[in-house]
Amino acid sequence: MADKLQIFLTVVRHMNFSRAAEELYMTQPAVSQYIKSLEEELNVQLFDRSQKKIQLTKAGEIVVYYGKEINMLSTKMNRALDDLTNHVAGELLLGASYSYGEYLLPKCLAAFLTNYPQVYPRICIDNTTEIADKIINQTLDLGIIEGSIPIKRLVMHKIATDHMVIVAKSEQTVHNLNDQTWIIREQGSGTREAFEHFIKEHNIVPHRILEFGSTQLIKEAVVNGLGVALLSEWTIKNEMQLNKLQIVLKDKYNYNRDFHAIHLNTPFLSKTAETFLEFLKK
C-alpha cells in the first residue's frame, strides 16, 4: 500500500493526474491504475471524477489526513533505524524563537557543521508558543525557546542565560519609565513574557504600548525614536557599535532569562538531534 499511498498523495498535491504522472515519471494510465487499485483495496472512492476537475471525496480527505501521518511516521522510523549505525548525518529539523534563532543559532550551527558536515539543518523561526506546537505536532526535532513552557509532553534543557536591558534611541534622555512608550512583542513570544515579568517586578505602568511582530522591527522603531524596549543584549550588538541605540538605566533595571532546548518526551530522539542537543548544552 505504501507506493499506492505515495502516488495518491502526489495526485492530491497537484489535483491533476497528468501533472502527478510527470512528477513521478510515470504514464497517466499507470497513475490511474494505482489509484483504482488503492480504492479497491480500501473499498472506497477517493476522487469525484464527475466534474472537469477532480475533487476529493470525504473518504479521500480521510486518507489524505492519515496518509500524511503514515508518511511522517515512516520517515521517523527510517531515521531512527539509521541512527543504529551511530552516524550523525542527514536532516535536522530545528525551530527557534526570534532572539536565539536570528542572532545566536547561525554561529552555533556553523561550529556544529564543522564537526558534522553531513548534517543538513532546516530552520524554522517563530515565537515560543508556535515552536512548542510544532514540536508537539512532530514537524520539528528540536526547538530553542526563550524562557520556559510548562507542557508535560515536552522535555526542556537549559542551554544559556540571556541578559536583557532597556534600550532607547542614541542620545535620548530617559528618566521615568512610566512616561515612556514601550515597544513590545506579540502574545506567545518569550520576549513578551519577559517584558510582562519585568514591569511587574519593577512596578512599571507604561504610558503607551506598541506591539510589533519581530525583534528587528522593534529595534528599528526604537532607533527612529518611537519608544523604548526591553531586549536581549545579544540582539543589539550591531546597533550599539553603530551608535544607533543606547542601554539606559542599566544599573537599576535589567532582567535575566534562560534559553531552553525542547523536544518531545520520547525515547527515540534521533542520533543527529541528540548530538546537536549535547552540543548546545556545552
- What is the CATH C-level name of the largest domain? Alpha Beta
Q: What's the number of structural domains?
A: 3
Helix content: 40-55%
- Give the second-level CATH assignment, the architecture of the largest domain: 3-Layer(aba) Sandwich
Overall SS class = alpha/beta
CATH third-level topology of the largest domain: D-Maltodextrin-Binding Protein, domain 2
Uncertain segments are none
- CATH-assigned homologous superfamily of the largest domain: Periplasmic binding protein-like II
- What's the shape? elongated
Content of β-strand: 15-25%
Distance between termini?
A: 45 Å
Largest sheet: 7 strands, mixed
Radius of gyration: 25 Å
User: Can you give the mean pLDDT?
Assistant: 89
Number of DSSP-assigned strands: 11
